[in-house]
Amino acid sequence: MTETQEALLLASASPRRRQILTRLHLPFTVAVAPIDEDQVQQHYHGPAEGLAQWTAAHKALATSTLPEAENRIVVTADTTVLLDDEILGKPRDEEHARELLRSLRGRWHRVVTGVVVSRKISGELTLYGASRSTPVLMRSYTDEEIDAYIASGDPMDKAGAYGIQNPEFQPTERINGCYLNVVGLPLCTLAELLEKFGIHTTETICTDPAGVCCPWSEQCLK
Ligand SMILES: Cc1cn([C@H]2C[C@H](O)[C@@H](COP(=O)(O)OP(=O)(O)OP(=O)(O)O)O2)c(=O)[nH]c1=O
């Protein structure tokens, strides 16, 4: 294990991202990016596909102000759900969750995760970012299933009000590409970005832009 590998900091409150990152077998610690995501996103006026990477970059900027980020390689990410060109964020309340789940029912949409890897040394911040988009088809779940899922509380902290990994609701019918991208941290993309700071993972890195060959996709979170 090198000194660089010990220096990884995941700036995320998401338990899914923590769990996924352990699969790279790189030691890391966790902090929460000191950012008001809603406020930051109000200043974004670019294409919908770019919002996730832009937000992940802002999480990196905010994290770089934390003393524990100095000299560390910081990983940040953001996941957005796009229905046509409409951005579906996390639900405001249960009624909003119901609305989002109904609008997604039986429809193809895209889940975009932006990943940023950054490091601040002596006040100078270096930042690399990328994003991946995964088309997802929802199954035609019933209103009763929606109500039961909302009652479980699971949708409330998730973009688009659903977790593809939920074992009871199992909201999706098909997915074209990277499963871990939908859950919130595409490991192939992250591994490529970590390479730029000289951090190598022992696993094969996926070279398929669609992420279909992702070496981790068979071990998805179920
Ligand atoms: C679409 C989808 C999203 N999600 C989650 C991933 C993210 O945690 C969340 C999207 O919100 P994010 O703002 O990307 O992440 P977060 O607020 O949970 O954590 P942090 O910003 O501190 O890193 O939705 C799933 O777990 N499963 C899914 O199928």
From TrEMBL:
Coiled-coil segments: none
Classification via SUPFAM superfamilies: ITPase-like
EC code: 3.6.1.9
Keyword Chaperone set for record: no
Root EC class: hydrolase
Cofactors required: a divalent metal cation
TM helices/strands, residue ranges: none
One example GO MF annotation: UTP diphosphatase activity
InterPro entries named among the record's database cross-references: ITPase-like_fam, Maf-like
Cellular component terms per the entry's GO annotation: cytoplasm
Catalytic activity: dTTP + H2O = dTMP + diphosphate + H(+); UTP + H2O = UMP + diphosphate + H(+)
Site (Important for substrate specificity): 16, 79, 165
Organism: Thermosporothrix hazakensis
Keywords from the named record: Cytoplasm, Hydrolase, Methyltransferase, Nucleotide metabolism, Transferase
Active-site residues annotated for this sequence: 78 (proton acceptor)
Location(s), subcellular: Cytoplasm
Protein name stated in the entry: dTTP/UTP pyrophosphatase
